Amino acid sequence: MHSQLSPTPFLPTRAVIRSIIPMSTDNYLFQFRIDEPGDLVNCAPGQFVQLWIPGAGEAPISVCSGEIDGVLELCVRKTGRVTDALFNLNEGDWVGIRGPYGTGFPVDEYRGKDLVLIAGGLGIAPVRSLLQYVLNHREEFGKLTLIYGMRHSQQLLFRQELKVLLRRQDMHVYIAAEEVVGPDLPSVSWQLGRVTDMIKLAEIDEGFLSAICGPPVMYKFVVAELLKKGLKDNNIWLSLERHMKCAVGKCGHCFVGGTFTCREGPVFRMDTLRFLPEVIECS
Amino acid sequence: MERSAIFPKSRFQEFFDLMQEFGDVFAPRRVSEKSFSFKQVKNPSEIAFEALRTILPPKKFFFQQRETIISYDENGVRETKPKVSPQVLFGLHPCDLAGLGIMDKVYSASPPDPHYMARRQATLLVGLSCMPDKHCFCKAMGTDSPTSDYDLFLTDIGEDYFVQIHTPIGLQMVGSKKELFSGSDETKSQAFKDFWTTRDQAFTSHFQSENLPAIMDMEWDNKVWDELGNRCLSCGNCTPVCPTCYCFDMVDVASLHAQAGERVREWDSCQFVGFAKVAGDTNFRPGPVDRLKFWYRHKLHGFEDPHGLPTCVGCGRCTESCPAGIDDIVSVVLRLQGKPSVLISDRTTGATNSDCCGSDGGCGSGCGGCGSTHGSTSGGSPGCGGTDTGGHPHA
């Protein structure tokens, strides 16, 4: 009990907005320059940071860049108090960032295996961090498939990057929207439908490992479809969304059953969730 | 090895003076006809020795109801160091000591919380024996005798107090006033043993806690949750009064010119509708049934990880303070176990919560029923009446 007191874990480091890239009407990609990144340089795919806008508060945001080299990328949707405040900031303004937190995707287990990455909507953000990692070490992984679905084609994020990915010979990309209108994306084979329809189409088999991130309502259906493809639930990893307030396993907001999502998660292997209540069901 | 000593009750003033040498003394004081609160005492006559449970548990001394963690202005962002002065908490019963033990585990776990730890390290804990009433069930939870989390523990053995000395600083306290204390003799030791035997037999509320986690899992869909949850007001009273409810929120309080401000930690309650809400208005526990069930699970099942303990210590505060009469852990557990039980609301003439809210500054600073815990962040009062106002701004 009697020990030297450490500094508070809630102290953020200063991050300056280097650039703001609109991706769709309410989703921007923010690039931050961090002078003293500390542990952030070791951020693993799937981990998250606490983004603090002074005066507005903190929110957990998934890191969406595969490797952090003085610049951290966050793809943020304007959807609440903190993100509203972020969207009012300009390049050159500063925010606070602390992290990285949580357990990300199991890159070491994925290595050498075939991989299917599944993203719904803004779930592309953490999936992109994993995708960038895999592409940076492409030869270390087997077959690679990306499935990305959204409600409306105008909500497509990372449009330019996807155009490049679609031309790659070493991976399959499936993009689906429930409604497709507006300017067509050259050479994007838009599919009308849902993520689950793409899973049916995709050439994936029981040898694949999977990584999923999307809105909570999506998981039940995606997992069921993957099981039909022959994947076992110990080959399925989900990134769960909770509103972490402290991110250090104390505040209780991210409890799933008796587990802190901010520490054990946000990425969980499906079979470890089997015994927990309140995992993916929601209103 | 534990040591012990004796001092006569008639010389309590000297013991009190001794405590004051080690810091400001806080002890239960009567604040209304039926309620007590831990407050500073300058004189032994202010102490309510008969107090069984205070409105708020002693966690409030370490995990403060509202506390600035970080402040910022034009010059930067910095940690706000806690203001700490030596203090002695007197009159803690075994359940409160066990509760603090659990709080210590949570807040000392990596990364340790410096605000909690600084206050904890500056505090001496002096326990006091008690006799259970109908709400007490610490025996069922196995927290009915003082275990590890105290410096001194006083057992009332009639004319004297029997003092268990548990820590080096406790020994130092006793050693610094040798003329007050004497060694125990056979009669006194026997009186000590008799007291704890009598106390053990005095419990009227009891259940078997064996395999409670398994039963909580098994009965996750039991209809008792719907029955109780539908009566729940989502007032959140049960959480501030719980010695082990440690959940909190972090909010920004900006100055008017918005260039400076503070990040403040304040108590939060899993019974508020916004507690498990995420972006896009998705709520993992939208109804009072979900939230009540979650709270019960946390208290009785404990965490699978990382702490591995049930977090109920059997103090009975939630039972006493629930305005709907549904936080009756003993009855609920008996029902889950398939044994006959009667809800407390049917056993008594109603909750005693009105005493709490009407009377005490200590309550005003912590009782969710008054809405004060969250009034500042939500604009509304998610604490009152279970209205779904969406207490938490979320992003």
Please name the defining characteristics of this protein.
heterodimer, A: 283 residues, alpha/beta, Elongation Factor Tu (Ef-tu), domain 3, Rossmann fold, seven-stranded mixed β-sheet, six-stranded antiparallel β-sheet, 8 helices, globular, B: 395 residues, four-stranded antiparallel β-sheet, 15 helices, 11 strands, 30% helix, disordered C terminus
Describe the protein in words.
The complex is a heterodimer of chains A (283) and B (395). Chain A folds into 2 domains: 13-101, Elongation Factor Tu (Ef-tu), domain 3, CATH 2.40.30.10; 107-238, Rossmann fold, CATH 3.40.50.80. Chain A starts with 12 loop residues before the first strand and ends in a 10-residue tail after the last helix. Chain A has a 7-stranded mixed sheet with strand order 10-9-8-7-11-12-15, sandwiched between helices. In chain A, strands 4-3-6-1-2-5 form a 6-stranded antiparallel sheet. Helices cover 20% and strands 32% of the residues of chain A. Chain A has 283 residues and is of the alpha/beta class. Chain B is α/β, with parallel strands linked by helices and 395 residues long. Helix content of chain B is 30%, strand content 17%. Chain B has helices at residues 12-21, 94-108, 114-121, 138-141, 168-175, 186-201, 212-218, 223-229, 288-300, 317-321, 329-336, 344-347, 353-359, 361-364, 375-378, and strands at residues 3-8, 24-30, 36-40, 66-73, 76-79, 87-92, 123-128, 152-156, 160-165, 248-254, 261-267. Chain B starts with a strand and ends in a 17-residue tail after the last helix. The model of chain B is unreliable at 348-395 (pLDDT under 50).
